[in-house]
# Entry
Amino acid sequence: MSDSSLLKALKTHFGFDAFRPMQEEIIEHMMTDGHALVIMPTGGGKSVCYQLPAILKDGLSVVVSPLISLMNDQVRALRANGIAAAAMHSGTDAREAKETVQQIKDGTLKLLYVSPEKALSSGFISFLQPFRISLIAIDEAHCVSIWGNDFRPEYAMLRELISHFPDSAVIALTATADVATQKDICDQLQLKNPKTYLSSFERPNITLTVQAGIQRLDHMKVFIRRQEGRPGIVYCLARKTTESIAKSLRKVGYKAEAYHAEMDNVFRKKVQEDFQFDRIEIVCATIAFGMGIDKPNIGWIIHYNLPKNIESYYQEVGRAGRDGQPAEALMFYSFRDVSVYREFIEKSSGPPEFKRVQSEKLDRIWEYSQAMNCRTNVILNYFGEYRSAPCGHCDHCLQPQEGFDGTRLAQMALSACKRCGESLGMGLLVDVLRGSGRKEIYDRGLQLVKTYGVGKDVSWKNWMNYITQMINQGLLDIDYVNHSVLKCTPLSDEVLYHQKAVILHRPAEPLEEPAKKKVPRREIFNKELIRRLDALCRACAKEEEIPAYAVFSKGTIKEMARVRPITVEDFSQVEGVGKYKADKYGQAFVDVIRAYFADQDVLKNPRGMTYVETLDLFHQGLSLEEMAKKRALAEATIASHLSKLYEKGEQIDLKQFLLPDDLAIAKQGWRASGFSDQVKKVKEQTGDSISYTRLHLALAVLRRDAAKES
Ligand code: ADP
Ligand code: ZN
# Structure
């Protein structure tokens, strides 16, 4: 098959205009019935590597995957593209299974997803034997290796399946495998002359930021607000934290839920499903969450606590931005987290060797959190991909930090530590430096220490940060066994008595609210169109009971809004729209775009723009007061905009701004004014029983109701 016909098939079946790195070579190799091992990061686009050959080749392809929800997602996505796919696992019912068997017998099924248990169950292989099996894919292949992250002994038995179909193409795929694991996968599965495809672990669309865990909740709220409603995950170490954070986020208006291992199974499943279907925006989870979810539109990940190693961290981060849209990862670290892990490791029942490895892995993630240069490189180097060029999408690359001479500050801290008998934890040491009047200070007589209050000009949170830096530079040490008090080190004396210079870095400012720059008009117009397309997408998804992104991804919707096709033909050319979806949804989406152009009244007249700006703020969920403030207009003016939009048929709920009696009062006044068009005339009738603003809105409701009746 020629290159251009593969590309054409990619567009027809999946709607993509170009291959991602490696995909094309892998697919070509699969078309020749070869064997392959593919190592690609999460979101790299592994599925297409076997799905496209499966579609193009004669016969049936079998995909073995250990994660049921992931299988179901994939089948759903394939079917949404008009491709005959089915799954068989412990969760499929008898009727479905029967249908699937029939499809196999009819030769219509292209992809069959099975769990390893199913693949190895008695009779399965002999059932498949008479049919042409064009390809076998083993997903999450690291499970076959004892060196991998989640070894499953039965997984290695899959070589049975492979050996029964010697003419099939075979592809083993994984996102995590070091060199030893890679080799072991090929051996265990007895792959024949496998070609190994190792793609870069870099995820260029994810911005990596790391911060000291000080005032975490405040930082988080700003960060989440900046995400403009994209769904995300907050990973925490403890069950209790997941619950308290979810609660705090709900309080400020987010649809957030906790998720942890101790939760009731049914409820846990519900949280996962609600997240999948965008009914929940944020999940605050212990690490138990996310293994089996394939949600391409996750926009951000927060690690509220330090993750336990770089593998887990990067796997969790990798769940963001699978749709290729820009995504953000924010990680907090603290010494407390490290002590908690150390205790875990100490108390764990594993052999000493295991403990040593865990502890070293912990050191590495700690070093990552403290890195003063490109973070992506730290990660890539960890996975054996050596690089030193800056990545351009981590905090250090985006905002390089200059150090300053912090010798005097360091001397203050060290001297205070010494004078207090090296008996203070970090917080109390800062209180001494800042001359706090806290009870504990007086109880312990610390106000008498000579350095008491010498550092009062530096804020509490900056001190915490500087001391953290000093610990990392080996100037102070934490005595984990003894209530985590700070101790001096040999280096402390160098600084105190021999003028050793200390370089410190200013702590990251609290994440800034996005600058209130004036949004260009075209962008606001565009936002409105995106909102309408998004609404249609959700409506289609609801009807078919699939998640909205299975209809069209956010990226595809943005692309539609950019291209603005007004014929189905043009629509089918949009990146992300395949032939099947163009036929199925094209007309409806084109209609929305046409209607948007046709909204002359609201959008096109010279004053229309001001309405659109107000509408935009309304959709952001602002109150009347906030809208007025943002636009520097009177509330009554805002109300008049909303009234006009409402009367033009815009789907907005005005009643939320009204008090219970407002409609009745307005109705009476309106009648008394002889159904006047002028709010002023009606106001003369109602007097002060209703404000101008609310009268505007109430009249709009009454007028539209009246228009409907007549
Ligand atoms: P992985 O299994 O490697 O984690 P997926 O196969 O789920 O990744 O692909 C990740 C995302 O990238 C999916 O949303 C998929 O639709 C999209 N994708 C895959 N290949 C392409 C491509 N060639 N062009 C655009 N998007 C792609
Ligand atoms: Zn970088």
User: Anything to note?
Assistant: The two ends are 64 Å apart (CA to CA). The CA atoms of residues 300 and 328 lie 5 Å apart.
